[in-house]
Design brief:
With about 180 residues, this protein is mainly alpha-helical. It is about 70% helix and about 0% strand. The longest helix is centred in the N-terminal third of the chain and has 35 residues. The protein is elongated.
């Protein structure tokens, strides 16, 4: 079951139905679409784990060219599951926070994850001292996989998360703010 995020939004009816209408939808009517969405998320998290492993291995080996090449394709899998990943705010912050989220900027200890590695690779053109950040990213992605496997997908969270993602796309992703260094 390979559906694009757009196809899933259509499946959930988000692009055709006002969000308020979901409040009146019988829970049983959402079982199929939510089940399809969980399968989609699970498959994409498996791909995220696999691609993140290759990406972080390249970072730890000091292979800047390969790490740069793998960065964007790996991020696609995180972005595809972000509405669910955001349910785990600790992991989302660790995996996906941007430099603007940290008062001390790039020197902040808690500035980790994809965007910290993106900064090192594309802005500084280095992998020096990035091994621990790569290890933490890999650990966090595996933790996300475990947490999602145990998660019951509440329809209101799925719909709310998808709506929030649409707003984020309009606000930051289209402008390039999301991956500004790469």
């Amino acid at each position: 079951m390979k559906k694009t995020p757009l196809a899933l939004l259509l499946t959930l009816g988000l692009l055709q139905t006002p969000l308020a209408a979901f409040a009146a939808t019988a829970p049983l009517d959402l079982v199929g679409p939510v089940s399809d969405y969980k399968i989609y998320v699970t498959e994409n998290i498996e791909e995220l784990v696999s691609h993140t492993q290759k990406f972080t291995d390249a970072v730890k080996k000091g292979d800047i060219a390969t790490a740069k090449k793998l960065y964007a394709p790996t991020r696609v899998y995180y972005e595809s599951v972000e509405p669910i990943a955001e349910l785990f705010s600790d992991l989302d912050a660790s995996i996906d926070s941007r430099v603007d989220d940290h008062e001390q900027g790039v020197t902040a200890e808690d500035f980790t994850g994809f965007h910290r590695l993106e900064y090192a690779l594309f802005s500084q053109n280095t992998t020096k001292d990035q091994g621990p950040i790569a290890d933490k990213l890999m650990s966090d992605v595996k933790d996300l996989e475990k947490r999602v496997a145990d998660l019951t997908f509440p329809p209101e969270k799925v719909v709310g998360g998808a709506a929030a993602l649409l707003e984020e796309v309009a606000a930051t992703k289209i402008s390039g703010e999301e991956d500004r260094y790469s």
